[in-house]
Design brief:
The complex is a heterodimer of chains A (109) and B (113).
Chain A lengths: L4 E3 L2 E5 L4 E6 L6 E7 L5 E8 L4 E4 L2 E6 L4 E6 L8 E9 L2 E4 L3 E6 L1
Parallel strand pairs in A: 2-11
Antiparallel strand pairs in A: 1-3, 3-8, 4-5, 4-9, 6-7, 7-8, 9-10, 9-11
Chain B lengths: L4 E3 L2 E4 L5 E6 L6 E7 L6 E7 L2 E4 L8 E4 L6 E5 L8 E8 L7 E2 L3 E5 L1
Parallel strand pairs in B: 2-11
Antiparallel strand pairs in B: 1-3, 3-8, 4-5, 4-9, 5-6, 7-8, 9-10, 9-11
The chains are: A mainly beta (109), B mainly beta (113).
Chain lengths: 109, 113
């Protein structure tokens, strides 16, 4: 069974705009990770936030984690066409990942 | 640094046939994972190895799926016999022991007709 659920399922934005997607999960976690998957390819690790952290930044990415609400959000600022991909949150316990169904992001030029 | 290698990239078979997928992890990565990703869903863990030992295979349908990592490096995942619902992308990932970040291969897209 899948632990995380992303919202929205799909998102279409104009280049330069920000994209925000959310992830909710059900059980306690060690950390939560976000991965990107371009069409027909494997997943690429974007960012990891530990259960005792509330916010983390990496380049144009900002991740928040609210363990009391069992939710996380990923913000991509100043989006580019190359950001078009599916984004997955994955909860981690004992080095095992449980993925949500993903958010498909389309960035229009 | 070379990434995780998988082959073949695509495979089409008839139901009830057998198929095998191969994965070579990043050098030095003792932990290896196989995931199944059905269209429109996130990856689901099938099996986790550390070196040549199985850590977790609780979600592996053992009546038809098997996996091995005999020398603690590359790994093979087999399906015998295949069913229509096995159509999916099979992803291999590896990581360093005790590290959370996983590195994924490009996957093998299996179509069962």
């Amino acid at each position: 069974s899948q632990q995380g659920e992303e919202d929205p399922q799909a998102l279409s934005i104009q280049e330069g705009e920000n994209a925000t997607m959310n992830c909710s999960y059900k059980t306690s976690i060690n950390n939560l990770q976000w991965y990107r998957q371009n069409s027909g390819r494997g997943l690429v690790h974007l960012i990891l936030i530990r259960s005792n952290e509330r916010e983390k930044h990496s380049g144009r990415l900002r991740v928040t984690l609210d363990t009391s609400k069992k939710s996380s959000s990923l913000l991509i600022t100043a989006s580019r066409a190359a950001d078009t991909a599916s984004y997955f949150c994955a909860t981690s316990n004992d080095y095992k990942l449980s993925f949500g169904a993903g958010t498909t992001v389309t960035v229009r030029a | 640094e070379a990434g995780v290698a998988q082959s073949p990239r695509y495979k089409i078979i008839e139901k009830r046939q057998s198929v095998a997928f191969w994965c070579n992890p990043i050098s030095g990565h003792a932990t290896l994972y196989w995931y199944q990703q059905i269209l429109g869903q996130g990856p689901k863990l099938l099996i986790q190895f550390q070196n040549n030992g199985v850590v977790d295979d609780s979600q592996l349908p053992k009546d038809r799926f098997s996996a091995e990592r005999l020398k603690g490096v590359d790994s093979t995942l087999k399906i015998q016999p295949a069913k229509l619902e096995d159509s999916a992308v099979y992803l291999c990932a590896s990581s360093l022991v005790g590290r959370d970040e996983q590195f994924f291969g490009p996957g093998t897209r299996l179509t069962v007709l």
